[in-house]
Design goal:
The protein has 239 residues and is an alpha/beta fold. It contains seven helices and 15 strands. Strand 3, helix 3 and strand 4 form a beta-alpha-beta unit. The radius of gyration is 22 Å and the shape is elongated.
């Protein structure tokens, strides 16, 4: 779950941002934990390194200056000042702002920030695999699929194969189902690495050209899993 903090003492700004975040959760089917802080002193007590903080202007302090104070207190969150003073954009770069948004913000502005943040976070996810006496760390996106061959599980990556020490069903139980789906009793596919699905939905083609089967009883469930993944992680679709 993604944590988003709204730092604002404007009831109108808080209400507007919460409405946009609720819409994002509904449209993307992605849970968000929203926290509201009206005073910077409240946020200085928090430690949320993997959160997004939307900061609005106030009479006492502008959003960029507030971001500067947070950075001075070693806050590493993705800071997003929302300001109507475009002259402060250069100053925002000095404090490594994740984005600077012009007030009033549109739904698309907030959606883009969250989508971009989630995509960046995804690239950092790591899967740890034990291969005999070795422990191997893999970027989640590097795994294309996992197969059970002659009762032994093999993990296929963009860089080669790894022999797993546990059965396929145990691997399936440990992987996040947002990204991995057991399309057949002998195969787990990484939804990130699917290039295409047949019109009859009986086989999957991966980005490396590998073709995997989909069992009949899993077709409907696979369609739902893939649609949810596409809604949450696809940014441009050309048809």
């Amino acid at each position: 779950m993604l944590t988003i903090v709204i730092l604002s003492n404007s009831s109108k700004a808080i209400s507007g941002l919460k409405s946009i975040l609720e819409l994002y959760t509904y449209e993307k089917m992605y849970p968000i934990d929203v926290k509201v802080c009206k005073d910077i002193k409240d946020i200085l007590k928090l430690s949320l390194p993997n959160a997004i903080i939307f900061i609005t202007d106030s009479k006492e302090r502008n959003a960029v200056k507030t971001a500067q104070i947070l950075r001075e207190h070693r806050h590493t969150e993705a800071l997003v000042p929302i300001t109507d003073n475009i002259e402060l954009v250069y100053e925002a770069f000095k404090v490594s702002a994740y984005r600077v948004l012009k007030a009033p913000v549109a739904n698309a502005d907030i959606f883009e920030v969250i989508d971009s943040f989630r995509k960046r976070a995804l690239s950092k996810h790591v899967v740890v695999v034990k291969d005999g006496t070795e422990t191997i760390s893999l970027a989640m996106s590097d795994i294309t699929y996992i197969a059970s061959i002659n009762r032994e599980a093999k993990i296929f990556t963009r860089h080669g194969e790894i022999n797993a020490t546990v059965p396929l069903f145990q691997i399936a139980a440990q992987l996040p189902n947002e990204f991995f789906y057991m399309c057949h009793r002998s195969y787990i596919v990484n939804l990130m690495n699917i290039r295409s699905v047949s019109t009859t939905i009986d086989r999957i083609t991966l980005i490396d050209g590998t073709v995997l089967p989909i069992s009949r009883r899993r077709k409907a469930e696979f369609v739902g899993a893939r649609e949810k993944f596409m809604q949450n992680h696809t940014y441009t679709i050309i048809s």
